[in-house]
Here is the input.
Amino acid sequence: MRLNYQNLSSILKNYKVSQNSFISKEFIIPLEQEYATDYKNIIQKDDIVKEGQIIAISTGNSKSKRTSDESTFIHSPVPGKVMDILPVYTSSGKQKFAVKIKFGGEFSYLGKKITEKSIENLTSSQIIEQLIDKGVVNTYNLKKIENPGLQIKNNSFKNLVVRFFDEDSFRFTDSLVAKLFTNEIIKGAQILAKAMNCYGILFVIDQSFEKKQELENLNISNLRVLQLKTKKYPCGTQKQIEQAFKKSGLKKTSNLEITKNDFFTDSSTLYEVYKAVICSVPSISHLVHFSGNCLYSSCLLDVKIGTTLNDIVKQIGGFVKEPSVIVINGLIYGNSVESLNVPVTKSVKSVEFISKTKITDSQIYSCVNCGNCRYVCPSRISPDILYSYAVNFKEIPEVLKNTVQDCEECGSCNTVCPARLPLSKTISYLKDTVYEEKN
Here is the structure.
């Protein structure tokens, strides 16, 4: 399926650098940063905190299945005073408690000279510990972000697969990070490869990536580069990468065999891995792409976790026109939020502000039984039938229920549905429901 979106190469050429966002007066840090993981604040109102200080620790729940010694952490993005612990709406649309910090004091990392350290003498367990302690998250699957340290600790991975572009055709964050921080991403890949003690590394790039020759010439054992045509959607999902690798000639020349049991990650994650392990900086900020026809211009900003969208908009010159919709993480894979008071979390890669003139009819109609969703589905499931069972609260037959986990959550069914049914979101909900039933 081909989607009508701006050419990736023409967008990337306009970006030469990223910029730090301004420091706001107040920061709101939600106690939700990973999938199915609750956090408990370990600081109280009126406490004074330092930049990078741990302010919350994960408690785990039935979905995360963590043991007591597998906690992850949230760090204060700035020095300051804890003003309150209050409920807020997050970028996921959920209401969670958050720590409100008023900025004030000396920075521990921002503006300081960062000395890179070698990973040569670091053991696998030491790297894993750094990834956990620094609060890094793997954003390859934005709906289920996890700490890569815990992923490696609790699983056995043979290969490392790195996607250098975004799986959402209307989001450009990973592509921009790959272009601007190529060397850091390469180092991040080497860090994870050492932590995993993996057999091979696969870099998955857009065929127009300007530094592809540089990647292919790297002197790294068992490294291969897979080029894909990202204009054809879906492209970049785990299943799509597996299939594209099998069709390429790389398997014969490398003896690699890419499967769902390998470690999949993206350029944004590897940049955070680099900062955490080589620069010893906790995950207190990350790169976010801001765009939309309501802004004067698009930009890639290194944003402190807890900065509200309202503060960001003020920093980049305000709106040209009032937004009708605020989209987080892309038009296909993302979701919309209603307020500018939503804070940036580790799971936010992009924010798009769209005016009313660019919004089409969002009215949901009755299914017309056209079959488009089944035809376009890369996993060959029946989104319309699953949707019907879900909205009518009917027990799903076991044979259909077993197909739910095959959904790639690519959103293709949504793009072709004339009735505008929320098919992808519904199946995503069903996946969680089925998972809970079986576990």
